[in-house]
# Entry
Amino acid sequence: MAGAYMLVLQPAAGPAVLVPQGRANFTATMLPQFGRCPEAAKGIEGGKLGPQHMKRIVSMYAQWARGTAAAPSKP
# Structure
């Protein structure tokens, strides 16, 4: 269904983001949100993670962000 949205994502900072269903729109919209997480970026870019996987993507990103924040800084 072109142009359909199933979910609204509210980032910690910035406006809410509509999660598009189409592959190209999904990739273009979600990479800026989750692209810093290597595993999420790879899945989104490779087409293995799509709109139906938002719970997994958000969880993956949160886990990555926690690990990044907890990692000691390099001298």
Remarks:
- Helices lie at 23-34, 38-45, 54-70.
